[in-house]
Fold each of these.
Amino acid sequence: MLSDDRPLEELLAEVEARAKVCVACPLSQTRTNVVFGEGNPRSPLVIVGEGPGEQEDATGRPFVGRAGALLDKALREAGMTRRHVYICNIVKCRACVIENGRARNRPPTQDEINACFPWLDAQLTIIKPLVIVCLGSPAASTLIHKNFKIMQERGLWFSNRYALAVIAALHPAYILRQAGEAYEKSYRSLVEDLIAAREKVKEIRRLLDTQQPIPPEGEEQMRLF
Ligand code: URA
């Protein structure tokens, strides 16, 4: 199915259509929308978050709430916009608990992550990014290694079966829960990790394509990756 010659947009649309009717886990019973992912599927850089929150569930789009606004700001500081990257999550439906009659986000369970994994696997297999940025610990534990320690291991480079270079950064929702200096420090680390990811794309491209001359300094800055 995934090895045919159709354009990747078509392959991805087909997977998305199947994901939209997925009932593989109980999150399908409480979701409003499946949040599959969006952005440039031909980007060398894929950003993977944890899962949709309230706004994302309501709109069907990833990172459109407060955490998304912070991610957009950090991307801009790293010289990118979400049109330059592809953004998705390890789980495609909102995980929440009802407390005092209100739905509150909760981390997805391992069973939910496992049930949803085939969608992420298909996305990354089709997109074939050069670099993946995992936002937060659940994404890093899923895509880097099982006992990932986000505070110790963020900003370090790994690789996996989907990309030559994989890095984890602090999740924007975690950063939003910090105050004062802790907020500043954690936000700077996110920007730094995004800049490192963008630089890593350029480095890998040079290594893969030794025919491609390294552009002179000025020209280099005109190009995003
Ligand atoms: N947090 C995530 O991890 N993903 C989203 O899409 C929104 C918030």
Amino acid sequence: MAQPVAAASGSPAVAGEELLDALGPVKPRWRRVVLKMSGEALGVTTSSEAISGDTVERIAQEVTVARERFGSELAIVVGGGNIWRGTIGVGAGMDRATSDYMGMLATVINSLALQDAIERHGQPTRVLTAIAMAEIAEPYIRRRAIRHLEKGRVVIFAAGMGNPYFTTDTSAALRAAEIEAEVLLKGTHSGVDGVYSADPRLDPDATRFDELSFSEVVMKDLRAMDMTAITFCKDNNLPILVFDLMVEGNILSAISTGSIGTLIR
Ligand code: UDP
């Protein structure tokens, strides 16, 4: 059974500070962003803990620095795959909707872990859930989310869309459109730093695209995000930046210059 959050093994110096010093004063490329990360990005592969304290700490640190240095308005959507995924229960014979609700609850656990870590850095946050649970988070109300962002709070959207049969990729795309974010930052965790012509872990000739159109992604069936999310972003002119979340400093680069990974628009 999964264990609670693994302790952070001492904070890394100040993640991204060196990169920022090298960049000098930066006017961020994006004014308002939604950062999507998979639950598995927070997971621990080497032990049974559900959440890596080190990873949560590093992300919290970069998010806080991004707020302080760039002033960009920042919302986060985190998945639940490190704890539960709808397909796990379905594979074991469970009712799909029930299993999906379990997945949505898993995203709330991850959201609270991120909230805790970000607030320990002094950055105010609000968790807004699509499933009411008033004791631990605010309900998702679009205008309230925008107000929080305008006040400089980091908003964490939890419980997906509140509807089974969807993923948190699609939830992130929907929330980004609703709050009129300029970009959806899709952080990957599998060591692939963007969108490639083929899986670079299997094909040494695979090449990374710096930029792609939505039509190319759909036509070539490129694996950037859940296809429902891709078509939603296409229909709503919402660019997606796919980048490697696990490289220190990359959240800062994605927000400040946007010149890493693959930009789909
Ligand atoms: N989920 C859902 N509706 C939503 C968002 C998520 O039913 O709007 C469920 C679904 O079962 C999914 C699980 O929550 O498998 C966890 O989300 P996801 O798989 O997107 O997490 P990630 O792969 O990003 O960690």
